[in-house]
Automatic annotation (TrEMBL):
Entry protein name: Thiamine phosphate synthase/TenI domain-containing protein
Gene3D superfamilies given in the database record: 3.40.1190.20, Aldolase class I (3.20.20.70)
SUPFAM superfamilies: Ribokinase-like (SSF53613), Thiamin phosphate synthase (SSF51391)
Record-level GO BP terms: thiamine biosynthetic process; thiamine diphosphate biosynthetic process
Amino acid sequence: MPSKDVDYSCYLVTDSTPAILGDKDLVAVVKAAVEGGATIVQYRDKTSETAELVQVAKQLHQITKRAGVPLLINDRVDVALAAGVEGVHVGQDDLDLKTTRRILGPDAIIGITANTLEEALEAARDGADYLGIGTVYATPTKENTKSIIGAAGVQQILTALASAGHDEVKTVAIGGINARNVQRIMYQCASPEKKLDGVAVVSAIMASDDPKDATQHLCKLISQPPPFVTPVSRGKLTRDELVAKAPVIVKRMAQAKPLCHNMTNLVVQNFAANVALAVGSSPIMSNNGLEAADLAALGGSLVINMGTTTPEMRENHLRALAAYNAVGSPTLLDPVGAGATAHRREGVKALMAGGFFDVIKGNEGEIRTVSGAQGVKQHGVDSGASQLSLEDRIRLVKGTAARERNIILMTGSTDVISDGERTFTINNGHPYLGEITGSGCTLGTTIASMMAAEREDKLLAALTGILMYEIAAERAGVREEVKGPGTFVPAFIDELYRIRQECVNNETRWAQTAKVDLV
Ligand code: 3NM
């Protein structure tokens, strides 16, 4: 088979160690995986003697050949030749690509591991058929991996390959990929210019009690977009359209009264529940990850707020995120104090590697941390003085949203929000919001409530939430009885409630005070 016609979508890499294979028979597992739909197999055995490798390779080849599935050998060009298989996979420290090609000839399938941009570009230039790009996530299967690059690192490599004109080289991602994350990884690794051709897995199949079923399940997932991706036509959204649509969305949300599941911090639980009630959603303030699957089935949305976080909370957050992602229900991350401590910086990474967030909202320091910036210093959870110009903030928000393929909101005196294509600034709000606790957190609750009702265009939902929230603050701040932050809070909740009632009664004037610009 010409190597350009090879299907790399569900790539099995074997492992014969007891920790992964258990007491199963390697050949039987590969047979089951091929029956389950594995599209290409790499025999990877770092310890057996050469004669044994050749013998097992021949046995595996009988199975794969019958199914029309290519078999490659890890590292050992001699074994590949002796067993007469379709090709090899080499690492950066193995025999070099050009020599490998010279030995195996033009028709052999030759793949190489690439951990960096430079390695990927060099391998493509040297004529690799495919690249195994990783390590995506840390994995017990291979502990001596060079660096963990995440989906963002894979995407960067794909973009660079496309920019250098290497459209022809095929790519698979490897490292820590399994049925729980494969769809998100395929989605978040893709750059507009180049997508992954597949994923390579070891333990997800080799360690399974039922390798055929595990492979079938993986193949099915790989062939479909993740449930949280809505096929929204990202048409242009103008300020006027937003002003016209926002009240309609609030009305729809208030009438549906969707569940808004808040896993939030100890400080704002009561306030967040009151804000949810005022805007018209139905709050549940459960921090127990074990009940998240039942709650996710109710069709609402999830807020994960990292304030007052603990290691146990992180486990609960990850469980809940997986549950909402599995049914495609909207999720929002509020990485409170993300840049303040090492535990929180690590927490942001773990959450972003553990699932998909439709919206990540935070102040400048938090969003800089989310973007991967080093050396962000946050003193506690407050936003502090801005370090970046508006132009730089817009660039950062847009770039991070495009990379994550989600929506990023950076709050501040001017809010910046983007889905990577459409970017807006918002200048509504009131200074008292900065004088009370939980104003950022409960904006998250408001946005999540809107997303539960407007699932197609989540940027539109988020903008609606911001406008409702900030315009309510403006109206509260000028009320006669409001003398400061203390009297502001109840007036603010009243104004959220009033805007909701106005929307229900088709009174839409409030939205006309939107100070929104498409940038
Ligand atoms: N190569 P699992 S990671 C064989 O980063 C291998 O190059 C890697 O195992 C690399 O699917 C890896 O069980 C192991 O996480 C992947």
